Structure formats: structure tokens, C-alpha cells
Amino acid sequence: MSLLVQVFKWDQGCRLHHRVGILLWRGVKKQAVYPTKLAEVGRLVEARDDRYETGQLFLHRIFGYRGVILFPWTARVYDRDLHNPGKISATTTASASSTQQHRTKEDSLRVKANTSAPPTAATAQSNDAPTSAAFQTNAAEGTTNVGTASQVDPKEVKGKVQTFYQVLIDTRDCPYIRAQTEAVTFLGNQDSNRSLYAIPGLDYVAHEDIMPYSSSEKSPLQHELFDKFLTYVPEADPPFVAQDTLKAWQEKNHPWLDMSDVHKETTENVRITVIPFYMGCRETPASSVYWWRYCIRLENLGEMSVQLRERHWRIFSLSGTLETVRGRGVVGQEPILSPRLPAFQYSSHVSLQAPSGHMWGTFRLEREDGYSFDCKIPPFSLESKPDDLGPPTPATPSAHDKKRGDSD
């Protein structure tokens, strides 16, 4: 039986519902006040084990938004849970099992969209401790050594190569997803060392979070870069092909967009995923300042709601400095992670007066029964790259870019 997916007009809020291992959005609306008009926009197709192509439309398995794949990245994932199997609860195992079951479910899913107002997403009707000397990454072997200055842990965390994708997000879904839609930032060309610019509606998505679907529309996604980067070719599969502008933009901005390492760790059924990015170096007469951004996802794998209360960061620089940062929440929020809204994703920035360093820390979380605990942020390295590649190029004229300051 086909699985119908409907997008309801946004009114009061949204909830994530689990149906056949799929996390989809459901809009809440008042009865008989705002009638909903539905229109078919596509049909889910069978998930693939190999890479998806540029132009593939998809739904995000966790955040529920509609998007399109621009190009893939190959990343090495360091999952500390794999080396501490006792930490993984039955809930984590069930979550992985649920994802796998989804791949074997119906590959035909009809996607509905609100034609009179921006959709929230879909509903299914079923059918941030070690020191520099102790944190080393061997890129060739794909391992990370984790320990302290006085006692190095001999255990190695081996990296597993996985595929991630650079994607565009449908702007109609941006207001309703629990993830920053301006996560891709770069250094501007102004003189100030703190000038950061963001390109709205770009994200990085893991292969397992892609739920592919097809559409007969020539412009099925609303984003100002869609028609600049992709062109409709009905005989192609998928029928949206990369234009030369996308290829040129990817090549020019490769150093700032490229992702190489992903770090994961689970504490008390809360999984933290960190992806660091090198942004570039700002030269001044007095010093050189190196910038990185980092994207963090918190995901509740348990059955009880938890709320993020505090953050505690330790930032070590190759220059020998060790900085401690404490504060309430993240990016001005104290998000609640519930079984129905299990994930929250944000990005922030860090600068060092050295070409490398590393970060680690904890999030203080409070469970709904009053129990508080520190959730580990897996340690990750901050590595710079050669600076002879020139400045980043905006995807569109400067009016498209949005200036932003430090967020955390």
C-alpha cells in the first residue's frame, strides 16, 4: 500500500511522528478555521545504498524539510560509541533498526503540499579533556588517539568513510525546522577580523538521512539558487542537472565548503555529532587569526524528554593557550529534545591565533524527571589549510549574503 504524506497549513506548532521508521512533520491546525488545500508534489522512490546524484530531491529523515542534492562529500566519521558498545542503549539499537526497516518499506510515497501557505513539512498516514599532546589524528590511517596529558588512552577511534551531501533547503520549510538554515558561513572581504557572512538555505546531510523522491515539476523547490545551479532536463535521472555556475562555485569554494571529519558520541541516550570546518585566516600587522566554524547536532535517542541548560567548552590552541567557555544554552536557546522533536542542530565559530588546536566539552542536560547530567561533546581537531587559494566567492551577488556575528 502506498504511504500518503500530507503537508498541512501551519497554525500552532508541529510534531514529529514515527511511522515505519520515518520521522516526518505534522502541522497542528484549528478545526474548521483554516481549510487545507492539498496538492501532489512528488512520490518517494526507493532509497539507495550507493551515492545519490546531483539534482536528487529528498526529504530530510530527521528534520523533515524538502531539499535537493548539489554534490557529495566524502567524510571520515569517528564514532566513539562503536568503541564503547556498553554505552549504546536498547533505544539506540532500536533507532538504527528503525532506520534500516524504512529502507525496506514501500518505495512509493505520495508527497502532498499546501498550495495556499508555506508548509511546515509532512505527516504520514499509514499505511562540544584531552590536551594537544594527547589528541592526534592520523589522516592516512583514519584513527584518532584520545587521552590526557598525564595518561594517554591507548585506545584508538578508527574513522569510517561515509558520504555526506551539500544540499539546498526549500525556503518554505526553513521557518519550521529545528536547525539553523544559515549554517554555511565564510569570511567576508572586509577589514574586520570578525566579519562573517552566511549563505541561507545550505546544509550538510548524511547519506542515511536522505529520503529520495521524484517530481514532475520543473521547479519543485523554492530557493533562489535552485534555478542558478540546476537546470531541468526531463530525460535525465534525476531530471535536474548541474549548470556550469554550480560547478564553478563548488570548485572556487571547495576549501571552505569541504568537510573531512565527523565526530560522534552518545551519553545517557543523547547523541552529539560535530562537524568542524576551516574558514580561513585573517592577516593583521600584529597577528594572524585563524577561523573555524563547527556544526553540532544533538539528538535524543531515549524515551524521556531532555532540555539543554548549559554549555562548557575547553579550547586549546597550538600557541599554548587553554580557554574555558561557559554559558547558558546555545545560540540563545535552551532547546527541549523530546521523542517527537528529538533533534536540534546549530553552528558557531571559533578563532585562534595559531594554525591549529582542538576543542572538547560538555552540554548540561536536564531530563523531564529532574535528573541532570553532562553530555560529552566529542573532542575534535581544528586544522588549517594553505591560504594561497584566494577568498571565497558568494553564490550570488552580495545582496544574497547575510552578515552575522559570533553566535556562541
UniProtKB/TrEMBL annotation:
SUPFAM superfamilies listed in its UniProt record: ApaG-like (SSF110069)
InterPro entries: ApaG_domain, ApaG_sf, Hemimethylated_DNA-bd_dom
PROSITE patterns cross-referenced by the UniProt entry: APAG
This protein's GO CC annotations: mitochondrial nucleoid; nucleus
Gene Ontology BP terms: error-free translesion synthesis
Domain ApaG: 264-389
Pfam families: DUF525 (PF04379)
Region feature Disordered, mapped onto this chain: 89-131, 378-408
GO molecular function terms listed in the Swiss-Prot or TrEMBL record: DNA binding
Biased composition (Low complexity): 89-99, 113-127
Biased segments, Basic and acidic residues type: 399-408
NCBIfam families listed in its UniProt record: PRK05461.1
Name used for this protein in its record: ApaG domain-containing protein
Upper classification of the organism: Eukaryota, Metazoa, Ecdysozoa, Arthropoda, Hexapoda
Gene (UniProt): Dyak\GE25469
